[in-house]
């Protein structure tokens, strides 16, 4: 007992000596503050594993020592995610703001700290699968706490909005191209607006508005501000404002210009877009962004693949390499293989045609392309009508992207007369007018 008292006396002398010296000391680095961690969820009792979570509620409680920290709303926690042991880069999450900035918060036995984090799939943008999440307190006084770990499973159930061949009364359909989240793809979306003779201007105005947030595409203004838009022959002239904040040399500008080009050339007879500043041609809009000559869309054959926004699928044109495909038959097989494979390197873009569906033969005569499939075609997505619509829209848009194709006849084992979804396969079909309606 005397020995223990001597040791404690020496420790206290050491601490007092340090604090009276010129060396700074942080007491919380020397003393361990025991903190209990508990995790609870708004949609079920506390667990260490959740499926398709939304907002998660955390409470941090001390067992013995009270702790006072400074509140940092929206940034009290750091979140990491791991997939197969590898860190998920650029993870997105949202900590719900609570309390006032810089407010002193007392964490005590009867006064825990509550934090809410949104890690829903739409917020994180993570593909379907299983992940390990770790949550850390950012405040240095709580730095010694072991991170909370949570196994998270995501499984999306997106729907597909069937394409349309009609527009609401007194409305017109505008096919607008918006960037996907992250700007990897341009996604066509049909927006119905009141009829207007100034179709070019109305198209640009609607494009400038951005996508409906419900589409989960990039929202807000993406294209540079413009003064006017007009056409001559088959060329559309877009007069941009030289002081537009979005006229900066970056990938977003190039994507925005492509968005304009693909959107305006969806208007009948329009083939190219000439960008102007103050009504004049210039060599560059920004360093490296040349606009002396008109821009034209890529019109090579495209496979229309489903982009998963978690809420819905949106078909978009993806152009595989068809340079070595010298005949329409060869082009068709390249396109069909792409529809069956999707983009393996991107889990957000899967196949649209089931693996057991085969393209047996291809015929082309006088503008009509005949595609002969095996009988597995008729059983595709038997219990999911919306995916049948998606497959048919994809096939019609994909194979009509071949320049000389006007109609598509679908055969099953060499025979017509069948039906699939709402389509009769007894006669040639044309692609629908309005792909990806913005709202259902």
How would you describe the overall organization of this protein?
This protein is an alpha+beta fold and 440 residues long. The protein has 4 domains: 31 residues; 120 residues, Immunoglobulin-like (Sandwich); 123 residues, no CATH class; 122 residues, no CATH class. The protein contains 7 helices and 26 strands. It has a 5-stranded mixed beta sheet with strand order 2-11-10-5-6, with no helix packed on it. Strands 1-3-9-7 form a 4-stranded antiparallel beta sheet, with no helix packed on it. The protein has a 3-stranded mixed beta sheet with strand order 12-21-20.
Features:
single chain; alpha+beta; 26 strands; Immunoglobulin-like; 4 domains; 440 residues
Please summarize what this structure is.
Helix 5 links the parallel strand 16 (235-240) and strand 17. The chain has helices at 2-20, 27-30, 121-124, 199-209, 251-264, 328-341, 385-399; strands at 35-41, 49-51, 55-62, 67-70, 77-83, 86-87, 94-95, 104-107, 113-118, 129-137, 148-154, 159-160, 171-179, 186-194, 226-232, 235-240, 272-277, 284-286, 289-290, 303-308, 312-318, 359-365, 368-373, 407-412, 419-420, 423-424. It has 440 residues and is α+β, with helices and mostly antiparallel strands.
């Amino acid at each position: 007992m005397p020995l223990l008292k001597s040791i404690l006396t020496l420790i206290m002398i050491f601490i007092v000596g340090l604090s009276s010296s010129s060396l700074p000391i942080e007491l919380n680095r020397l003393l361990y503050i025991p903190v209990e961690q508990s995790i609870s969820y708004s949609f079920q009792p506390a667990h260490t594993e959740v499926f398709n979570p939304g907002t998660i509620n955390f409470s941090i409680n001390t067992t013995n020592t009270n702790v006072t920290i400074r509140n940092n709303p929206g940034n009290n926690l750091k979140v990491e995610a791991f997939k197969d042991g590898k860190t998920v880069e650029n993870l997105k999450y949202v900590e719900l703001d609570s309390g006032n900035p810089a407010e002193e918060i007392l964490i005590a036995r009867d006064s825990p700290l509550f934090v809410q984090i949104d890690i829903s799939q739409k917020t994180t943008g993570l593909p379907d699968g299983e992940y390990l999440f770790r949550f850390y307190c950012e405040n240095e006084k709580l730095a010694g706490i072991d991170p909370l770990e949570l196994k998270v499973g995501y499984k999306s159930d997106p729907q597909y909005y069937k394409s349309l061949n009609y527009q609401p009364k007194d409305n017109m359909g505008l096919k607008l191209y918006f960037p996907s989240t992250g700007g990897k793809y341009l996604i066509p979306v049909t927006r119905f607006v009141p009829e207007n003779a100034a179709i070019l201007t109305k198209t640009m105005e609607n494009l400038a508005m951005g996508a409906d947030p419900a589409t989960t595409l990039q929202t807000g203004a993406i294209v540079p501000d413009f003064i006017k838009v007009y056409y001559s022959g088959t060329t559309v002239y877009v007069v941009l404002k030289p002081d537009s904040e979005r006229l900066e040399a970056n990938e977003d500008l190039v994507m925005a210009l492509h968005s304009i080009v693909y959107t305006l050339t969806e208007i009948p007879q329009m083939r190219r877009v000439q960008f102007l500043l103050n009504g004049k041609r210039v060599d560059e809009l920004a360093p490296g962004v040349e606009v002396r000559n008109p821009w034209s869309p890529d019109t090579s054959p495209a496979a229309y693949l489903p982009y998963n926004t978690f809420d819905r699928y949106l078909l978009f044109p993806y152009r595989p390499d068809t340079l070595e495909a010298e005949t329409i038959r060869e082009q068709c097989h390249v396109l069909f293989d792409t529809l069956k494979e999707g983009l393996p390197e991107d889990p957000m873009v899967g196949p649209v045609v089931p693996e057991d569906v085969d393209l047996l033969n291809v015929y082309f005569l006088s503008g009509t392309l005949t595609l002969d499939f095996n009988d597995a075609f008729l059983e595709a997505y038997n219990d999911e009508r919306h995916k049948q619509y998606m497959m048919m829209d994809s096939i019609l848009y994909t194979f009509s992207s071949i320049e000389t194709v006007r109609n598509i006849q679908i055969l099953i084992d060499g025979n017509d007369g069948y039906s699939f979804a709402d389509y009769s396969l007894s006669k040639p079909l044309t692609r629908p007018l309005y792909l990806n309606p913005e709202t259902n």
